[in-house]
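Q: Sequence in, structure out?
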Amino acid sequence: MTGIWRVPLGSVQSQNRKDQAYETTLPVPLSLHTGHSGMVPEHGENLHAWGGCFMKRKAMFPSSVYLVIGSSVVALLASLGLSMLFPGWRWHHEPLHSTIVALGGLTAIAMAIVLLQSTQQQTRKKFYPVAGGFLAMGLLEVFHALSTPGSGFVLLRSLAGLVGGLGFALVWLSPSESQGRRPRVSSLWWLAVGMIAFGLWTLGFPEQLPVMIHQGEFTQTAIVIKTIAGILFFAGAMYFLSDYRRTHKFEDGMFACLALLFGLSEFMFTYSSVWDWQWWFWHWIRLAAYLLVLGYVVRDYLGALTELQVSLAQTRQAEESVRRSELQLRALLEERKRLVQDLHDGAIQSIFTVGLSLERCQRLILTRPREAVNQIDNLIAELKVVIRDLRSYLSGKEPDPQHELPLDEAIASLVGTMNDSGPFNVRMHVDPEAARQLTREESTHVLYILKEAMSNSLRHAQAQSGTVSLSMKESVVRLEIEDDGCGFDIGQGQKQGYGLKNMAARARQLGARFELVSERKKGTHIIFDLHKQERGVAAST
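A: Exactly. Output:
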């Protein structure tokens, strides 16, 4: 059965070796290089990372938080003094009040979202109840801003403080960093649904609410709720102050101050009347606390954004480094593959031919010594060429298998060497015009394919005769090699050695058609077709 192996026409080209030296430099943000003006810490600087940004442990707490606390104490004393000087003063301004409360409520909701993100980390579980307190308090504050003065108005504000204080106080029951599972965030969303439902019920059914205000003064119910809320906030403040003394983490100190401010505002509520001095100062104190929260949220967001930009730049640099390494590795593998291919098809085949010729000279030395000497001289020149080629390989240069000869002369020289080396008789027909149509690279590949095919005919096929033809028909340059050797099974031949693979690879590299037909005891026929016109059109486009 005749075996046929075809490599179809292709457009696979060798990889441009310029890729080996391809380099790109991505701009890196300033924060990658400095630990002071950017957000990335330098080595040895005592920083703490939370929520995607880096924060100094101690630097910010005394300067800003103490300022807010001091301002709140001054506001408290001023409100008490003004109440004593102007006991009957009232300022009824619902739009301003609604704006302050709505701003505080939305800020609390934003803070809850930030804290919920942080609780996904194993070390941030203690903030889970605080996040729930902020979420519930923020939602009730928004409904409080939407309500009109009355019992519902006071009830929403009182319960907002109560649930917020409860969230802060529950940190005492939160598991340690190494205990328990991560909290389920879905339960807080159910809490949010409950707060929204309660807010809608308060706005829709005010007649069903308990009395929270009577003749402009807060009832005992309102005072008790606010007092409990203040105590809960102070309990949470004690927890965070204890943690701050132990860890010196910025967020522990900040939440301690928030709890103190919220607790102070709840107690001020019990000694005030609606729209009086203390009532307004109580709102301004809460606004100061909310501004502190808002500043923390903005700081966290900007820090996370900076960290994201830095991470993105680092990721791009890493990707570029990996890409360059991949290109270099691919180039090295291609170079190794090419070196193995060229050594096999070039120097090794030449050495094999020289060996056969030396065996022939050994037989001729006694009967025809002059012919043997002449052939030895030719073999010495051939060995010098092989040595030159090997030196080229070692220096990284690509040797020229034609040795500056035109392709038709190089083919004639190769066929002559084969005919002189043994009983293998090769007939040759080379069209000079077809040889001139090939570029230097194409001629090199053609010569390597011819050398490999003839070497196989002599070494493996035990052929007695063969033919080599280089012709051109229309736009196709065809190389044909045929011998009368023993032939072989195509499938088995593909699994052995580099020869057939190298010939097929060279054809693919040129986009040529390679066909090998062989049958046991019936020789081998190789066809190599290179379409010059199609390659020219492709190159021009």
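Residues 46-301 form one domain.
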